[in-house]
Amino acid sequence: MLCGQIAKARMSSTTALTIEALHERVEAIFSKAGLNPAQAGAITRAIVAGERDACKSHGIYRIEGALRTVKAGKAEPKAVPELLPQDAPAIVKVDAKGGFANPAFELGLPVLVERARATGIAALAINNAVHFSALWVEVEALADAGLAGLAMCPSYATVAPTGGSRPLLGTNPFAFGWPRQEHPPYVFDFATSVAARGEIELHRRAGKQLPEGWAIDADGKPTTDPEAALGGAMLSFGGHKGSAIGTMIELLAGAMLGDLTSREALDLLGTTTLYPKHGELVIALSPEAFAAGRPGSPFSRAEALFEAILDQGARLPSQRRFLAREKSRRDGISLTPQEMEQLDRFLEQGLDAV
Ligand code: NDP
Ligand code: PYC
What we know:
By secondary structure, the chain is α+β, with helices and mostly antiparallel strands. About 45% of the residues lie in helices and about 15% in strands. The longest helix is centred in the first third of the chain and has 19 residues, at about 100-120. The two termini are about 25 Å apart. The chain binds NADPH dihydro-nicotinamide-adenine-dinucleotide phosphate and pyrrole-2-carboxylate. NADPH dihydro-nicotinamide-adenine-dinucleotide phosphate binds near residues 57, 131, 135, 188 and 321.
């Protein structure tokens, strides 16, 4: 059945899979590896969305790490996340119970949306979650519900604070979304390091040097060698500014949530080859509620700003991603023979493949 959905791409040895066929295949891999339907379904949605939108560093490349993390006993494959009793009206708490963050987010999302609509602002605090995915999926879901959103989480210590030379902060992703009526939402999502760690790993696999300014080696010297970078430390984007935002994320989504900072997450895990367990903070805001009683619609004023950006020939963040999404819907998702072979192997061998 899966094979019937595969169309051979015309021009090369790549294989084009429909989004649905890739979803089916990835979900089958996680089910074979022993994940329950909530875990397998939610992480498949995040991974396939990444591959569909040409975000290779958080697409199917992440399957192997997720399987390794499960095999090592560092992610609970059958976890059922739990919505905790509410003790503050604007704070929605979900315990991921050691499973992946994605099903915990999916559980908390409808409650977060309902509270933000009712009160103007609400936050989702996820604890005890194994995290590896891109955050745009989450702020986009809020934007689809008409809400602005912020999402952030620590990771494990791989980034030196600006002026330092040893890993302390995580690559700490930070995402923002703003709803638009006639267009896909305004969304940005980035690591607070110069690049996501996944990018360094992809450079290593491809035998490519890193751009200058991404990393330092174990002696604190600038390096473009991915291997030396992985053994040294990554650098924050924008120097002291990115370093401060990365620190803020350690505070808000680590210390404030009563969960682990990136240093603590790495100490607990003992390696950067598996995915870390920590918390995540997602904040939802209702633009209408904040703008009530003030002149003008926040949405029309936002559109004027976006138009002014585009008028200068600049592009909006996520524009590349939305174009890639359209292409994937039209032509399917192109995978290399190596990627196809790897998916087949994971499907056949389950956790024995890693
Ligand atoms: P990128 O540098 O690839 O992209 C950052 C953002 O900037 C994107 O929204 C991108 O939009 C936008 N952008 C890029 N170029 C331009 C431009 N010229 N003009 C306007 N906007 C632009 O992101 P990173 O490599 O830093 O991060 C990649 C992913 O890694 C993120 O999704 C992040 O969540 C994830 N991550 C996850 C971690 C975790 O622990 N779970 C840790 C670190 C990162 P577009 O996509 O359209 O190009
Ligand atoms: O790409 O930096 C990254 C990353 C770390 C954990 C998950 N993704």
